[in-house]
Design brief:
The chain contains six helices and seven strands. By secondary structure, it is an alpha/beta fold. Keywords: Hydrolase.
């Protein structure tokens, strides 16, 4: 059912809901593999596979947010026979938001949209031209954000596999102009207390994209506050879904 756009990280034959995770810029579906141990048995866990990385390494990168979101929405539509919960981190939050809007237009809105470490559309600012930096400066920028991805730069042989995806995603973000679209589903927003690029007030701006409930939770840490917090965050997401459904 999932095809090349979605990877099933924890299958479930009769799930009560499906949790679909959207990776950050330069990230891949495997980033959410650790979440499989935190997800209960009645929840199916999936992650979005962006082109140009991992088992889609030979495919061309997406050229625009519209192209990316439309393809993912088509892949998610058949899964809407169960409630869908979207969780997107950083760039993935914007991709999840755009995907949710396209499904909502088909009356297949997710049950809950979770956005992490990303400014709300009403508080977004032009992306810096990171895609055009030389390798060393780009690596320095990514290292400053933290996260497990930075460890790949310690191995020179891995850099040619990692840097093209990061450049492509930053290029995509530089052309993305987010619109404030009102969604029918509740929105839960998350951030890190020490994330200087995405302060709490900017995360709170996601309340403008829903005509349903909104919750905000800030965790200790920086932009990748979620790296060692799989159980806490999964529990928070599922509790929020239960609350909004009730």
């Amino acid at each position: 059912m999932t095809g090349r756009w979605l990877r099933t990280l924890k299958p479930c034959s009769r799930p009560r809901l499906r949790l679909v995770c959207f990776p950050h810029a330069g990230g891949a579906a495997s980033y959410f593999v650790p979440w499989a141990e935190a997800v209960p048995g009645d929840v199916e866990l999936l992650a979005v596979c962006y082109p140009g990385r991992e088992d889609r390494l030979a495919e061309p990168f997406a050229e625009s947010m519209e192209q990316l979101a439309e393809a993912i929405a088509r892949a998610c539509a058949p899964l809407a026979d169960r409630p869908l919960v979207f969780f997107g981190h950083s760039m993935g939050a914007s991709v999840a938001y755009e995907t949710a809007a396209r499904l909502a237009a088909q009356d297949r809105s997710p049950a809950l949209l979770c956005v992490s470490a990303r400014r709300g559309p009403g508080r977004s600012h032009p992306a810096r031209a990171l895609a055009h930096l030389d390798d060393d400066r780009l690596i320095a920028e990514v290292r400053a954000l933290g996260g497990t991805q930075a460890e790949a730069f310690d191995h020179p042989e891995l850099r040619p596999l990692v840097l093209p995806a990061i450049r492509s995603d930053y290029r995509l973000l530089s052309t993305y102009e987010p619109r404030v679209m009102t969604l029918p589903c509740p929105v839960a927003a998350y951030g890190g207390t020490e994330d200087v690029d995405v302060p709490e007030e900017a995360v709170r701006a996601w309340q403008d994209v829903t005509r349903s409930g909104f919750t905000l939770r800030v965790f200790p840490g920086g932009h990748f506050y979620l790296a060692d917090r799989a159980r806490d965050l999964v529990a928070e997401v599922l509790a929020c879904e239960t609350t909004t459904r009730a």
